[in-house]
């Protein structure tokens, strides 16, 4: 990718704002044309896998493990410049799933904190939310409550609401000051960064086009699963002196069987992590 240029000093400013507010937005990563090319590659792959719901679900959950174009995205120097400033030079990607809201649908994301459900032993994580399409108020852009990351972990309740894009329909069980929330509007090719304890949510898409974002979850290599699972992750910066995870090679091609096999392993392990304490019949399959 041809990355946009921005003075290095801006990264320091981002880190200061992030520490205070728990997020930073917007941040230029690629051109709109490059974002459109990524979308085209994704949608071509969706078409190829449309016959198999399970494979399609894995593509949407792990695009960077199946498409070389998305593997290049998680390694984009502009994204890594911020992630390494916030977390240090040694980074893994814990996940890079797609959040897709189809046109004129009711899908939403309730107020929640990411880290409550991932089973990590520290909060050394940052999410870069990259916009494949414009994210607007009308199509359900994210909303943040500035400074809410300082509350650390708060209680949540599971709703399992049909239109909720979250795995358990989880939502914060304490009062959220929605009046102070800000809309995170992005053009295609821009990203926002948010802390894993940030209160965030998003509404439905009332427009005639899809709203597509890639949530890239960067973690420091020192982070591990509190219950000891050795997930298969991508290493994108520095070195790994800890060995808490298995390291996946970049995809050698497009939609390869060996990459689907690695994803199946992760799916089973992550299901145990994300649905801890949930009765089996309530677990959402092939989401």
In short:
Helices cover about 30% and strands about 25% of the residues. By secondary structure, it is α+β, with helices and mostly antiparallel strands.
Pick out its properties:
disordered N terminus, 28% helix, alpha+beta, 7-stranded mixed beta sheet, 13 strands, Jelly Rolls, 4-stranded antiparallel beta sheet
Question: What fraction, in percent, of the residue positions are helical?
Answer: 25-40%
The spatial strand order of the largest sheet comes to 1-9-4-11-2-12-13
Q: Which stretches are low in confidence, meaning pLDDT under 50 for 5 or more residues running?
A: 1-8
Care to count the β-strands?
13
Overall pLDDT metric: 90
Order of helices and strands: HEHHHHHEEEEEEEEEEEEH
CATH superfamily: q2cbj1_9rhob like domain
Examine the coordinates and then state which fold CATH places here, giving the name of the CATH topology: Jelly Rolls
Please name the CATH architecture: Sandwich
Structure description:
- The chain has 287 residues and is α+β, with helices and mostly antiparallel strands.
- The chain has one domain (22-279): q2cbj1_9rhob like domain (Jelly Rolls, Sandwich).
- The chain is built from seven helices and 13 strands.
- It has helices at residues 9-21, 32-48, 53-61, 63-66, 68-74, 77-87, 257-274, and strands spanning 23-28, 91-101, 109-112, 125-131, 142-144, 156-158, 170-172, 182-184, 190-195, 200-202, 211-220, 232-237, 246-247.
- The strands form three sheets. Strands 1-9-4-11-2-12-13 form a seven-stranded mixed sheet. A four-stranded antiparallel sheet has the order 3-10-5-8, with no helix packed on it.
- Helix 1 packs across helix 6.
- The radius of gyration is 18 Å and the shape is globular.
- The relative contact order is 0.22.
């Amino acid at each position: 990718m041809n990355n946009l240029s921005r003075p290095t000093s801006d990264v320091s400013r981002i880190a200061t704002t992030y520490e205070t507010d728990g997020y930073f937005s917007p941040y230029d990563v690629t051109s709109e044309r490059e974002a459109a090319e990524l979308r085209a590659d994704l949608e071509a792959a969706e078409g190829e896998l449309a016959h198999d719901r399970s494979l399609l679900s894995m593509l949407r959950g792990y695009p960077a493990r199946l498409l070389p174009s998305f593997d290049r995205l998680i390694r984009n120097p502009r994204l890594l410049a911020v992630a390494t400033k916030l977390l240090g030079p040694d980074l893994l990607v814990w996940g890079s799933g797609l959040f897709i809201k189809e046109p004129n649908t009711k899908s939403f994301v309730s107020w929640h904190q990411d880290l409550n459900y991932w089973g990590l032993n520290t909060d050394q994580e940052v999410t870069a939310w990259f916009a494949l399409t414009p994210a607007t108020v009308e199509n359900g852009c994210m909303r943040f409550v500035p400074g809410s990351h300082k509350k650390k972990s708060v209680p949540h309740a599971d709703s399992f609401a049909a239109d909720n894009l979250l795995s358990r329909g989880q939502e914060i069980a304490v009062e959220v000051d929605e009046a102070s929330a800000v809309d995170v509007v992005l053009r295609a090719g821009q990203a926002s960064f948010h802390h894993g304890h940030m209160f965030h949510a998003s509404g439905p898409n009332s427009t005639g086009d899809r709203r597509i974002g890639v949530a890239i979850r960067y973690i420091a290599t020192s982070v591990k699963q509190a219950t000891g699972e050795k997930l298969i992750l991508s290493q994108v910066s520095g070195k790994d002196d800890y060995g808490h995870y298995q390291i996946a090679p970049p995809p050698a091609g497009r939609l390869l069987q060996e990459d689907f096999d690695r994803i199946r392993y992760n799916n089973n392990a992550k299901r145990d992590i994300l649905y801890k304490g949930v009765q089996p019949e309530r677990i959402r399959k092939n989401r």
